[in-house]
Specification:
Helix content is 35%, strand content 18%. It is α/β, with parallel strands linked by helices. It folds into 4 domains: 214 residues, 3-Layer(aba) Sandwich (Rossmann fold); 131 residues, Rossmann fold (3-Layer(aba) Sandwich), CATH 3.40.50; 177 residues, Rossmann fold (3-Layer(aba) Sandwich), CATH 3.40.50.720; 82 residues, 2-Layer Sandwich (Alpha-Beta Plaits), CATH 3.30.70.260. The strands form 5 sheets. A 7-stranded parallel beta sheet has the order 16-15-14-17-18-19-20, with helices on both faces. It has a 6-stranded parallel beta sheet with strand order 3-2-1-6-7-8, sandwiched between helices. It is elongated, with a radius of gyration of 32 Å. The relative contact order is 0.07. The structure holds 1,4-dihydronicotinamide adenine dinucleotide and 2-oxo-3-(phosphonooxy)propanoic acid. The site of 2-oxo-3-(phosphonooxy)propanoic acid has 10 residues, from loops. It holds the Pfam family ACT_AHAS_ss. Its EC number is 1.1.1.399, 1.1.1.95.
């Protein structure tokens, strides 16, 4: 039997994102007047040594001489070293723990600092090869044990050779001293680790570059080999999605590109090729043509509430999971609707515009209180029902109309028809979703059924109102005012012009689709939608998915997870399980959930199997998508 491979990991800027001596300098020099200059000198010496321009032993001694280090400083850094773990190392804890007997940590750094992380990774102390600090009786650091080869240049290869490892040795690290292990023949392969720092000379001397641990594991055929390395998964976010989402997705190891504006269909078709995950807001139309061009797309997120801009059926037919953030901007829309209602009742927009022109027009004519007026809410979903509560709190009477049965909150009264609601309301506020059937839900006929001088608010979707008919009704004085936040044709970016028949009309407040645009809402949406995407990418969880069956799943532990999305037709599960049995797999757990068009099967199996054997799952009749998680 072949001898097992040993994986040798550097510590600073590899297992942790810091350079120990720089972090110790920060602690030891805190408050010192010359701190910045000394810190810069320490960093320069680290850089010279790691780039191979200065012998390691000399750099180490010179750095230690520069710093007034004590045992307390060392203990302070050791106490927080787990927090300094490199992001991709933290993601791959399982690899370290399960392979601890094949791992060596090799570092010119210090035992006290490395030991806590080594213990966390389950690497035994005898496999941690590093320097030992020497202290004087007052606890001041005076140097390192000189007999340890790691305190001198060429120490790393010497220490590895002395281990007399029988099998292949693979080295991974960011510095020149790591490259030297391979150059001196003490390692069979060297991966230049570049997640924290990238040094050209080190990369040039390496067999491979590892931008993250996922890439290293993938390249070495280790734990992550069944799933794609995360950094290669491309996420494209359009329409200025909040940085909270970008940060969360990047921290999880994915590659994120973020654009400010929306793209039209042709531009999106170009942009979406090779993209694994697409994030949009309300503007970007994700049509069947776009989905057809999206050769790699696994998931799509609407970083908003509405999903009418996405062809959900076409996405499901390709096994693309679609998510949204159904509650994160609800309150923002409701607050704006309340504010706009008061502004319309008091003619605030026109009075303010007149003041800006230098006109003073103090008058109560036509201005009314909100108290006691009837608010008609069309669409009593999350937004409509929340508005109902706030409006009642402000003394309004509330009536509502919805296509489906909804719980009437407070004293709100259900109306059996839209017409009945229109006839009774002083203010009509639209909160229906953007399904195609809602096009021109409010047209000339509906406007004519509203009370004389009543007000209309549309914060739902532009096509829900026939704006030409609304402009006419407003011009004729039939409707007393309107607040419109959404339009049939909205500019793709802030640089594009806006036009509408509603421009220039009296008591009409126009806002640029900002119902959900508050800092609170955007941050909450970013965090929520990113979390849904991660749950799907990392564990196959489809909770809140709007077009595939929802399955809530925990992280896989001690098993591989196989995800299979298929057309809902007879026999798929049986075929799938026959293929799994043929591959010799032991099923540890299985979930199946279907809706009328799609089935989603999640199978957890034993760890040991040949991924090639599973390719037959792709040919099971009805398969839409097949994915393996490690
Ligand atoms: N202006 C903005 O920035 C924002 C606009 N929106 C829009 O608001 C819409 C509603 O949001 P939510 O309340 O969260 O959605 P929701 O899905 O909870 O509620 C929509 C309700 O409208 C009802 N409905 C649909 N068509 C109807 C019709 N023809 N007549 C009567 N009822 C009808 C549905 O049965 C449902 O109860 C979103 O779909 C989105 O288009 C959402 C957030 C921000
Ligand atoms: O949440 C929604 O549906 C909205 O309409 C808000 O859209 P936006 O994210 O502002 O493009």
């Amino acid at each position: 039997m072949a001898e097992p491979t040993t994986y040798v990991f550097d510590f600073d800027s590899t297992l942790v994102r810091i350079e120990t001596l720089e972090a110790l300098a920060d602690i030891a020099l805190a408050g010192a007047p010359d701190a910045a200059a000394i810190r810069a000198e320490v960093a320069a010496l680290t850089d010279q040594a790691m780039a191979g321009d200065l012998p390691f032993g000399e750099a180490l001694r010179r750095r230690l001489t520069l710093l007034p280090l004590t045992r307390d400083h060392v203990a302070e850094l050791a106490a927080r070293i787990l927090d300094e773990g490199t992001p991709s190392v933290r993601r791959n804890l399982r690899f370290f723990r399960e392979n601890a007997d094949r791992i060596v940590i090799l570092s010119g750094g210090f035992r006290e600092i490395i030991a806590p992380l080594a213990a966390h990774l389950h690497v035994p102390p005898e496999r941690v090869l590093c320097n030992d600090l020497i202290y004087d009786p007052q606890g001041r650091v005076t140097g390192v044990e000189a007999a340890n080869p790691l305190s001198e240049a060429g120490g790393k290869p010497a220490v590895i050779r002395a281990l007399g490892l029988p099998g292949p040795v693979v080295m991974i690290g960011d510095g020149w001293t790591d490259a030297e292990v391979r150059l001196a023949g003490a390692a069979d392969r060297f991966h230049a680790f570049t997640e924290i720092v990238r040094r050209e000379r080190v990369v040039a001397a390496a067999d491979a570059e590892a931008p993250s641990m996922d890439e290293f594991l993938h390249a070495e055929g280790l734990a992550g080999r069944w799933s794609y390395p995360r950094a290669r998964i491309r996420i494209l976010l359009l329409e200025n999605i909040h940085p909270a989402a970008v940060e969360r997705l990047e921290e999880a190891g994915y590659t994120v590109e973020s654009l400010k504006g929306a793209l039209d269909e042709d531009a999106l078709i170009e942009a979406v090729r090779g993209v694994h995950v697409l994030g949009v807001r309300s503007k970007t139309q994700v049509s069947a043509r776009v989905l057809e061009a999206a050769d790699r797309l696994m998931a799509l997120a609407a970083f908003c509430i509405g999903t009418n801009q996405i062809d959900l059926d076409a996405a499901a037919a390709r096994g693309v999971a679609v998510f949204n953030a159904p509650y994160s901007n609800t309150r923002s829309v409701v607050e704006l609707a309340v504010g706009l209602t008061i502004a319309l009742l008091r003619d605030v927009a026109d009075k303010s515009a007149a003041m800006h022109r230098g006109e003073w027009n103090k008058s109560a004519a036509g201005s009314r209180e909100l108290r006691g007026k009837t608010l008609g809410i069309v669409g009593y979903g999350a937004i409509g029902s929340q508005l109902s509560v706030l409006a009642e709190g402000l003394g309004m009477r509330v009536v509502f109309h919805d296509l489906t049965e909804r719980l009437a909150l407070g004293n709100a009264r259900r109306m059996n028809s839209l017409d009945a609601l229109l006839a009774e309301s002083d203010v009509v506020s639209l909160h229906v979703d953007g399904r195609t059937e809602n096009t021109a839900l409010i047209g000339a006929a509906q406007l004519s059924r509203m009370k004389e001088g009543a007000l209309l608010l549309n914060l739902s979707r532009g096509h829900v109102v026939d704006v030409g008919a609304l402009a006419q009704a407003l011009g004729a004085g039939r409707i007393g005012g309107a607040a419109v936040d959404v339009f049939p044709d909205e500019p793709a970016t802030n640089a594009d012009p806006f036009d509408s028949p509603l421009r220039g009309l009296r008591n009409v407040i126009l806002t640029p689709h900002i119902g959900g645009s508050t800092e609170e809402a955007q941050e909450a949406i970013g965090a929520f939608a990113a979390e849904r995407l991660l749950a799907y990418l990392n564990r196959g969880d489809t909770t809140f998915c709007v077009n595939l069956p929802n399955v809530q799943l925990a992280e896989v532990d001690g098993a591989h997870r196989i995800l299979h999305i298929h057309r809902n037709q007879p026999g798929v599960l049986a075929d799938l399980n026959r293929a799994l049995a043929a591959a010799g797999l032991n099923i540890l757990g299985q979930h199946l959930k279907t809706d009328e068009r799609t089935g989603y099967v999640i199978t957890d199996v034993d760890r040991d199997y040949d991924p090639e054997a599973l390719q037959s799952l792709r040919s099971v009749a009805g398969t839409l998508r097949f994915r393996m998680l490690h």
